[in-house]
Design brief:
With 551 residues, this protein is mainly β. The chain has one domain (8-537): OMPT-like (Lipocalin, Beta Barrel), CATH 2.40.128.90. It has one helix at 8-18, and strands at residues 36-52, 64-82, 85-104, 111-112, 114-134, 139-158, 167-185, 190-207, 211-213, 225-227, 231-248, 272-292, 304-323, 328-352, 356-379, 382-383, 387-409, 421-448, 451-471, 476-496, 501-520, 526-549. The strands form 3 sheets. The protein has a 10-stranded antiparallel β-barrel. The two termini are 19 Å apart. The relative contact order is 0.15.
Length: 551
């Protein structure tokens, strides 16, 4: 997909030419007409942040539920084009599988706080689009704004199996959205696109579940005081990214030469073999969470939760992509990273110490090491010098080792670590492996000569998690296992320094989680457990492309 890069002056000339009045263009130039109706489909992922107000006061920890996961859907719209400017209307709707949990109403270590869950299973937008075509008019840069909706189920359950009913809010929410994207005509009635959207939903009515408050520092569980349900609010913000295809419901018209508007020339396939190899610097952020349920009671009401967060890593990876004249595509990468300075919050509810402890939260420092790899095999349905579009199937593996050091109690002085343990002491470790099957879409769009946007969106229909928890100070080693799903997203902007050599910058987001699973506490008991992981990264890369003409 490389073309000989122009000098910086030539690049500036190309940008200026693309912004010029179309009436000044060569009357014989071939242009793409975006006007008319279209339908399409998309695949991607999203992260919803549900903020739950605490009516009791400032929380020690929690109150924002992270609900990541995959989504897939479709869109329908209509465009009006005048010169290079475009206006349009678009409606889209998506199935979603966004799921997350977090502690809420943890305002005191003497109060048994709740486990809040946020589940989003459908969402959509109704928006106006405004855009501008560049180059030969076959590439469209656009922004959009309008209304948004989602169907969510938010509930809260008092922890420690207190026996109180859960509170829940299950209904449709309306809000607003802003978005931006790029779309490329790829021949005939087809175009492909990559898009980011931000959705915001104002607070809606919610209620706390009945809770339990410890009236003095030294009571028995029987002396807990019931705290009645109290009204509160839950608001949400959503970040989503998707890659898709559109199909126009009309035949692109052929205008007279005076109009300057003709359908895009049918793409000519590339007949050479192309191999791109390169390396990346990776600055990453990670989060891992596991919810410990109660034996025989499931994982709605929790006994404990461990959250490893703010784990920043520096690393590197190697990558390659092979495109054959037959259309076969193979791509992949391997990498590793290391970091320190992360945090571990180890929460427990209803601990039977000498003094009954309603809520405990210890804070530790975390060192993090990661290794990972991805391999995909796909088919270039469309491939020219200006664009590629390929569905693929693949496999990913992600290994993470986290070591917690030191311990400091931040909720209840009658619980663990009332006297801080120094960070020189190893207290706990987590050694995990996530394996997943990928089903996705890869798209490459040349914005102007020399500048290309690449996007990947993959749905993880099957994820297997296996791990080992080592409570070092307690000499307790616990095997863990679960199955789930997830999503993996990537976006890269590349600039061709020469026909073969390019540099780029981009980002990546992975999420994998399980609805349920188990942990074996040293052979003592099999307890239900839920696991989730997130990885985000800033990528800076350089690559070289070898091109071999076919016989």
């Amino acid at each position: 997909m490389r073309r000989q890069a122009a000098s910086l002056q030539g690049l500036a000339f190309l940008i200026a030419a693309s912004m010029a009045d179309p009436s000044s263009a060569d009357e014989t130039a071939l242009r793409y007409d975006w006007s008319g109706a279209y339908i399409g489909a998309n695949l991607g992922g999203a992260l919803t942040l549900t903020d739950i107000d605490d009516p009791f006061g400032a929380s020690i920890y929690g109150d924002t539920v992270r609900s990541p996961g995959p989504l897939a859907g479709g869109q329908i719209g209509y465009n009006w084009q005048v010169g290079r400017a475009l206006l349009g209307l678009e409606a889209d709707a998506s199935w979603a599988d966004l799921f997350g949990t977090e502690t809420c109403f943890a305002y005191s270590g003497y109060y048994i706080s709740a486990n809040c869950r946020a589940i989003i299973d459908a969402l959509g937008t109704l928006s106006a689009r405004a855009g501008w075509t560049v180059g030969d008019d076959a590439t469209l840069l656009y922004g959009k704004a309008g209304a948004a909706w989602m169907h969510s189920d938010v509930d809260a359950t008092t922890n420690n199996n207190a026996g109180f009913p859960s509170s829940a809010s299950d209904h449709m929410h309306w809000g607003w959205m802003l978005g931006a994207g790029i779309e490329r005509a790829i021949g005939g009635r087809w175009s492909m696109k990559a898009e980011y959207d931000y959705l915001s939903f104002a607070g809606s009515g919610f209620a706390t579940p009945v809770g339990s408050l410890q009236p003095t520092p030294n009571p028995t569980p029987a002396n807990l005081i019931a705290v009645p349900s109290t009204a509160t609010d839950a608001s949400a913000q959503m970040h989503l990214f998707k890659v898709g295809l559109n199909y126009r419901l009309y035949e692109p018209h052929t205008a007279t030469p005076a109009d300057g508007w003709l359908p895009v020339r049918a793409p000519q396939p590339v007949t050479n073999t192309a191999l791109e190899v390169g390396a990346r610097y990776v600055y990453g952020w990670g989060r891992f969470q596991k919810d410990l349920g109660i034996q025989g009671e499931g994982i709605s009401s929790l006994a404990s939760r461990l959250t490893y967060s703010d784990m920043n890593t520096n690393g590197a990876e190697l990558f390659a992509r092979l495109d054959l004249p037959s259309g076969l595509m193979v791509k992949g990468f391997v990498g590793k990273g290391n970091g320190n300075g992360g945090h571990l919050n180890d929460e427990d509810w209803g601990l039977p110490f000498d003094d009954f402890v309603p809520y405990s939260n210890t804070l530790s420092t975390v060192d993090d090491r990661i290794r990972y790899g991805v391999i995909d095999v796909g088919y270039d349905i469309w491939r020219t010098e200006q664009f590629r579009f390929a569905p693929f199937v693949g496999y990913s593996i992600f290994h993470q080792y986290m070591l917690g050091r030191g311990c400091d109690q931040i909720a209840n002085p009658h619980s663990d670590c009332p006297t801080p343990i120094p960070v020189s002491t190893d207290v706990i470790s987590e050694d995990d492996t996530w394996r997943a099957l990928r089903l996705g879409i890869s798209a490459d769009i040349e914005i102007i000569p020399g500048i290309t946007l690449s996007a990947d969106a993959a749905y993880l229909g099957y994820v297997h998690f296996s791990g080992v928890d080592d409570h070092i100070l307690r000499s307790l080693v616990s095997p863990e296992s679960a199955n789930g799903n997830g999503a993996q997203l990537e976006l890269m902007l590349k600039y061709a320094l020469t026909e073969q050599l390019s540099v780029g910058v981009g980002g990546r987001y992975w999420t994998m989680w399980t609805r349920d699973g188990t942990v074996n506490f040293g052979g003592e008991a099999i307890v239900p457990m839920r696991y989730s992981v997130e990885q985000a990264a800033l990528l800076v890369q350089g690559s070289y492309t070898f091109s071999v003409p076919s016989d």
